[in-house]
Amino acid sequence: MSAVRLALAQTNPVVGDISGNLDACFLEVKNAEAAGAQLVVFGEMVATGYPIEDLASKPSFVASVEEAISEFAKRLETNGLGHLFVVIGHPALAQGERELNFWALSQNLASVIHDGRVIATYAKHHLPNYSVFDEYRNFVPGETLTTFEAGGLKFALAICEDIWQAGGPVSEIAANGVDVTLVLNGSPFETGKRNTRIELIADLAKKQRTAVCYTNLVGGQDDLVFDGDSLVVDATGTQVARAKRFESDLLVVDIENKNEISGRQEQSSESELEEIWNALVLGLRDYAVKNSFRSVVLGLSGGIDSAVCAALAVDALGKDAVFGVKMPSAYSSEHSISDADDLASRLGINIRSAPIESAFDLFESELGLDGLAAENIQARIRGLILMAISNAENHLTLTTGNKTELSVGYSTIYGDSVGGFAPIKDVKKTLVWELARWRNEKAESQSQVSPIPENSISKPPSAELRPGQVDQDSLPEYDILDDILDQYIQRMLGRDEIIASGYATDLVDRIITLVDRAEWKRRQGAIGTKISGMAFGRDRRLPITNKSSARRN
Amino acid sequence: MSAVRLALAQTNPVVGDISGNLDACFLEVKNAEAAGAQLVVFGEMVATGYPIEDLASKPSFVASVEEAISEFAKRLETNGLGHLFVVIGHPALAQGERELNFWALSQNLASVIHDGRVIATYAKHHLPNYSVFDEYRNFVPGETLTTFEAGGLKFALAICEDIWQAGGPVSEIAANGVDVTLVLNGSPFETGKRNTRIELIADLAKKQRTAVCYTNLVGGQDDLVFDGDSLVVDATGTQVARAKRFESDLLVVDIENKNEISGRQEQSSESELEEIWNALVLGLRDYAVKNSFRSVVLGLSGGIDSAVCAALAVDALGKDAVFGVKMPSAYSSEHSISDADDLASRLGINIRSAPIESAFDLFESELGLDGLAAENIQARIRGLILMAISNAENHLTLTTGNKTELSVGYSTIYGDSVGGFAPIKDVKKTLVWELARWRNEKAESQSQVSPIPENSISKPPSAELRPGQVDQDSLPEYDILDDILDQYIQRMLGRDEIIASGYATDLVDRIITLVDRAEWKRRQGAIGTKISGMAFGRDRRLPITNKSSARRN
């Protein structure tokens, strides 16, 4: 009888930090060895972080990774870890002809390290080139299945997209009599994706008659959050072990044979709101930490968006790292100030006041403007103040716009849009409210102070740029707006299809025209965590100069 | 003997404006018929404009194009133009299986219209998925050569990238006994690309023993400029006709056989500086016009960048459409004001003054800041003023940053970076000076007033954000800086390679760290015309969170 103890190392690499990432991998191999493992499997491209985008087309970068992998193999051996089989993801320069795509010069690899050297290598075959991914741009596909033996079992390798598409080397696993397939992943979070992923893994196991060890990365990288959730299924497709979600983990399993595997099962059955909240927290935390920010600054308007962003920031970085700024104007309501104070006191964050009235009066008298131009000046004075505080105190500025607002351009560019990170960029307004209620309920269920003032949730939303203004002066009710936007943006439906779903023609025309006209603003917007199937940014690529909605297409 | 009169219709479509584009095509077919042509060839995707990016993945949009093409064919026939052969580029939904790439749902087609219907169709085979292009994301490749006969000659079809890469249907042209290959193109301008393009066309002619009619689009679309320059070579590879560059044109040629073709030869042998200038003018003009702006506003600092942008804007839109704003501070030199006035008077543009001193004093006293934070406040007050004027008077705001400055982050985000379009975004500082000198010399050679004040060209560049500041306080000389940046950005060389080229280690480390750290700012920057082989934007895709330079890779 064979028996292998295998560790799935779910780590959080930083893009470009080859030495730091491999140091972390080295520690995990030591931990795995201490836990008695003979085989360790890391995530996709763990040596460089993921995705590295056009760094994959930079020869010196890829060459330095290859060198670092060789050194890593020697280091393992020098430190008495050479007997382990270590499966690690990294890029390497492609060999031979590259007919299909002359721009791509490297491959996305899984290498098996043993006895101080690489004994087997697999190159990713299916290269995702949709949604946020550009892998066909950057990589040359591999064509052949790679297997190796360890502890009397036969292992095969696969990388992420390989199990999401039909055909390719993965389809030859059963014919090769493989016991266990090791899948290295950089699979980002998306609402509702988790179940699809689990089904795919079980399908692979059943169809190819193989156990599957699925190791995912964890952590935030720009707009993506890798949610971890690594898992093992046996050859019947039954889940036999599962790692933590949204945090680093080392999941150790004992494999007797492909049908007899035992390991730890993390309980993780978050509600949809909880998993979204956790993704947003991790995305914000890692953007700040990986870019060397220890604190954030944001404007507190008393409204729901800034309240949710502040609560996320506290969950991500702690209350002492969050700096709120009230910036009242002559049009600010009493509650805009009292709700902001209430929020700060509930969260225990720093708060200060920087009134904009005198600056606004000065600009108004010097420039003599009114209407939209004057409204925008208020938002831009606030942006200037936030950036000044950020510059002086070295905080990351958070911009608090939600997806609905970004969709229709209901924000002032260089005003409330200023900032390096947009925590709720991909969260539509109706979901912002749901998240706020969920977070408060969670606090209450734990006998903690609910972080978000009830009044910020229940009052009518307003930009307060003129007396008595509310959002619904110029926009339909948010449930209607979000549904139209969902059809137009997420589902990519056309004007006639949306009208056919039951909305008035002029309403639909007005909304889709707003969306298309705001493209230039979105193009200049901060990045923020993707949680939906169609986030703004590299997920949805449309021209700025674009008459399609104006021409009713 | 056969003889066909053929017209290459070099037109300027607007992305998404299907009806407007096809109306323009209809007029060109009429013009071609009036000129006696039997066959008309348009550019790639002329019906929708190009590139349409993810509009190609929107079923309702693509379906409406297909419908519009059918109607266009009928309209030609109804108007007595059905006897012509009209070759037109457009997308259509792909038929059948799409194994390779499930995201792509359409094809990039060339359709031959005759007698009121489409009689032949070719689908682009080679899909560029590098540089600014994402065609593998959006299109399904075609696999077969399409030929048709007209006027006793045999024609083949090809689309743009098909002639830039080896293999594919184009390689079967000679074997099919083709007389003339019609190539539909959306080939954007890049400095030095023109000769490569001409060589490729001549190579195709010689290798496949075919005459080649190469029709390019013309005009600006966001960051791309299509330079026209359509041309015809006979089967020996000899150029026999050539259209205008940087403007619409209808080039009519008479084809006796593949070796006997005659037509108009536009003289067009611009210097490199002249072609760059023309590309920048067209890119700026079309961005403004296609987005319904009649005028632009920009800050005039007395420096070279704003002077060149103002001169470009005058060449693009006329002097009455250009609004300059002086925004002097306490640190502004005497010449910053006098040089701006001199520029405005040379160009004949509108100019006004909006001093920032009182606003700056107010913010400084309220916020109590100094150093970088205070410097940035000045730039942000200027940004606020420009945007206020833009909002009030409906001008497109131009941001005047050059490529060198964007590379190293030597600008204030939400300050001097505000604007919808960045005319010299892809022009490095040393080239800005060359363009200024070239433009002045051109004016002098035509006995006109040289537009750019000599003092703006010759004085040491300064942001004037503190007393006596010049750029070289914090940056190396621009010729050195531009060379290092060229190695790091354009040529994608690594740190060690740049050091090996002869620069000091600490200088190289400092510069490449500046470049990587400024990625978040560039991501929020305005678009601007691409003129180089590696422009910022979708041409160069790198993560914001990226430790590769910090780790010296």
> What is the global morphology of chain A?
elongated
Look at the helices and sheets of chain A and give the structural class. alpha/beta
Question: Biggest sheet of chain A: strands side by side, in what order?
Answer: 5-4-3-2-1-14-15
The low-confidence runs of chain A, each spanning 5 or more residues with pLDDT under 50, are: none
Q: What is the number of E strands of chain A? A: 19
The percentage of residues in β strands of chain A lies in: 15-25%
Mean pLDDT level of chain A:
95
How many DSSP helices of chain A?
16
Largest interface: A-B, 91 and 92 residues
Q: Please give the oligomerization state of what you see.
A: homodimer
What profile does the largest beta sheet of chain A have? 7 strands, mixed
In terms of topology, how is this protein built?
The structure is a homodimer of 553-residue chains.
Chain A: E1 4-10, H1 18-34, E2 39-41, H2 59-78, E3 85-93, E4 106-114, E5 117-123, H3 135-138, E6 147-150, E7 153-159, E8 180-185, H4 193-208, E9 211-216, E10 218-221, E11 224-227, E12 231-233, E13 239-242, E14 249-257, E15 260-263, H5 272-290, E16 296-299, H6 304-317, E17 322-326, H7 334-347, E18 350-353, H8 357-367, H9 371-393, E19 396-397, H10 403-408, H11 429-445, H12 454-458, H13 478-490, H14 495-500, H15 505-517, H16 519-523
Parallel strand pairs in A: 1-2, 2-3, 7-8, 8-9, 16-17, 16-19, 17-18
Antiparallel strand pairs in A: 1-14, 3-4, 4-5, 6-7, 9-12, 10-11, 12-13, 14-15
Helix pairs in contact in A: 1-2, 5-6, 5-11, 6-11, 8-9, 13-15
In short:
The structure is a homodimer. The first copy, chain A, has about 550 residues and is of the alpha/beta class.
